[in-house]
């Protein structure tokens, strides 16, 4: 069954502090969403509202047209995967996966076992004795194998080393092909993960700053590469986000549209125009907001 989600003017207040401010957006079946925001932007709060861990202060959340809060059927279809404290978990992986199967209706035990092998988790150790990265891998296995139509990974990959994160990214692509669902990846590892996103949500100080497809987002600017002097002159009218130079070759990341006329000029000047890096846009947009307030 395919799921869709709608947030309509959702706010969340903690005493006098408004962590989420009148946020509206939609999530569609089969898409992988990158939820990006600086520390404290409100990512976990937003996701916990979707997972019905808490109620919004105002606004409406709907999952397939229904309010998910205390709705057992819908809640069993949403899997909010976050860093779990396993310090009292004496079970082994095998026992733990069996227990999970009993309350997740779509749980695929065979797939879970394959992932346990892929991430090389020990079968005989109690989970409390796992390393941080091994516990993160277990969370990821539970997230994938539960096959919930709405799966949320909230920064669960931070404890994993680079080769394990790479396995995770591969699995995101393969599993979205095999069993498409709404998949939300909340992350700070923007440059490493951006290729996984179909759609980008940038949350800044509780407000939804960007809600666009990945392709739309990276059209907001460009990278310009070529001879340093020529690049400097060409990029001068633009807002420069980042620049790198190696010998005479310079590459700058600019914010703003390179129109058809500029594209022709770039070609004539032997400059290479490429897509914007999402990470540079993220840093730029969230920084700019701060300088406005200063
Ligand atoms: N239960 C709570 N009571 C009071 N303030 C809270 C509560 N939960 C979250 N906040 C505040 O809401 C803001 C957003 O927190 P949240 O954890 O959602 O941010 P985040 O984007 O997930 O951050 P990070 O990337 O650092 O994990 C923070 O200022 C935080 O202190």
Strand content: 25-35%
User: Level of helix content?
Assistant: 25-40%
Unreliable stretches, pLDDT < 50, 5 or more residues? Answer: 289-294
Under the CATH scheme, the architecture of the largest domain is 3-Layer(aba) Sandwich
Structural class: alpha/beta
Average of pLDDT: 92
Distance between the termini: 48 Å
CA-based gyration radius: 22 Å
Q: What would the principal axes of the Cα set say about the shape?
A: globular
Domain ABC transporter: 5-230
GO molecular function: ATP binding
Pfam families: ABC_tran
Protein name: ABC transporter ATP-binding protein
Quick description:
With 294 residues, the protein is an alpha/beta fold. It has helices at residues 43-50, 72-75, 93-101, 109-118, 132-145, 162-178, 190-193, 214-218, 228-235, 260-268, 278-293; strands at 4-14, 17-28, 32-36, 58-63, 78-81, 150-154, 182-187, 199-204, 207-213, 221-227, 239-246, 249-255, 272-275. It folds into two domains: 4-217, Rossmann fold; 221-275, Alpha-Beta Plaits (2-Layer Sandwich), CATH 3.30.70.
Which terms summarize this structure?
294 residues; alpha/beta; Rossmann fold; Alpha-Beta Plaits; 2 domains; four-stranded antiparallel beta sheet; disordered C terminus; ATP binding; ABC transporter ATP-binding protein
